[in-house]
Amino acid sequence: MSIRYRRLLNINERPRTNANTAHHFQQPSWLSRINNTQIFTCYIHPIMIFAVRPSVRAAARQSVFATQRRTVISLAKTVATASGAGRNGSTKLDDGSLDIGLATPKEMGGSGQGNNPEQLFALGYASCFLGALQLVAKNKNVKLSDDVKIKAAVSIGEVKGSGGFGIGVELTAIGADASLVHEAHTVCPYSRILKEGAEVKLNVK
């Protein structure tokens, strides 16, 4: 079994510091692992940047995200609103088509009497990856079996060695050709955002 690791973000420059500017800069370690059993694993680690001066913080942020920003021309947009007690509150789509009560998993000390963000992420990733796989097959004039399935396992936990929380994703393709699955991994928007990152615009009202 061959396993290939690829570092997704490589920070060559760190912001300058002096005695009057204390800051901590931690290099992210987003990794994508692909092996020949058709299982893909992506780990997301939090990026922590603390700086006293805004100029230092801005320089650090620019260094981190310079390689991952992508301009997306929107074709469709979904808006969701979360309220209540965070991971024990509720979230709903603004068009009224979905309203979900949330609960922290029992493994994390919660009641487990509801859904959680990782479950919603798994649902979206599995369906999106299957769509990407079907698109790749169609473009290659390959007939996919109706029995092809994608399983997405999403976990949350503490990031070993650096603290904070991160998520782990494991995708399993069932009944599909490995070469098509590998190519779908480069096409699926969920896979791309995990590998390449995305620009997030924050609005405060």
TrEMBL record:
Protein name, as recorded: OsmC domain-containing protein
A GO BP entry: response to oxidative stress
UniProt cross-references to SUPFAM superfamilies, sorted A to Z: OsmC-like (SSF82784)
One Pfam family in the UniProt entry: OsmC
Domain of life: Eukaryota
InterPro entries with a match to the protein in the record: KH_dom-like_a/b (IPR015946), OHR (IPR019953), OsmC/Ohr_fam (IPR003718), OsmC/Ohrsf (IPR036102)
Family: Belongs to the OsmC/Ohr family.
Species of the source: Thanatephorus cucumeris (strain AG1-IA) (Rice sheath blight fungus)
Gene3D superfamilies associated with the record: 2.20.25.10, 3.30.300.20
